[in-house]
Amino acid sequence: MRMFIASLGWDHAGWCGTFYPDDLPPEWRLAYYANEFAAVVVPAAVWRRADAALAAQWVADTAAGFRFLLEASGEAPSSALVQALGVRFGGVVGPGGLPVLRWEGGADARALRAALAALPDASVLLVAGAPPSLQALRTAQTITQLLGR
To answer: CA-to-CA distance for 101 and 146, rounded, in angstroms?
Structure first.
């Protein structure tokens, strides 16, 4: 199993006009995000409200290799949600699930490399913040590719 580099969510107002084009409809943001990144951590507040139809739409909006990781919340996701995500369900992130390192630092390549080297396989570097740093996401993604993780 591989290491995941992901942001906490994909719908950040701070990314509009910088990452997302100004004229990009909000419902296209996931597809746009998924064209650059391979995984996202769906915040617990979002996945707990999602039904199977919405999860199926998320799957339809992303490429086959994209993975949805669910933020741990103290409750298990519904079987209908997990079934709708199918093979795209990457697991639950946090206590009782995949090991996670929450990264709110900058995009310093040396610091990111050291953090990534300390993480076991089948873990998540979760880039968080308001909004999450796109440069940190990109740098971490490049480092994991170079390390063959």
So the answer is: 19
C-alpha dist (Å) from residue 143 to 5, 29, 107: 10, 25, 11
Return the structure tokens found at 67. 């993975």
**What's the CA gap between 145 and 149, in Å, rounded?**
6
R_g over Cα of the chain: 15
Strands 39-42 and 4-8: parallel
In 3-state terms, what secondary structure has residue 91? strand
H or E segment to which residue 117 belongs: helix 109-118
Summarize pLDDT for 97-128 with one digit per residue, the tens.
999 999 998 899 999 999 999 898 889 999 99
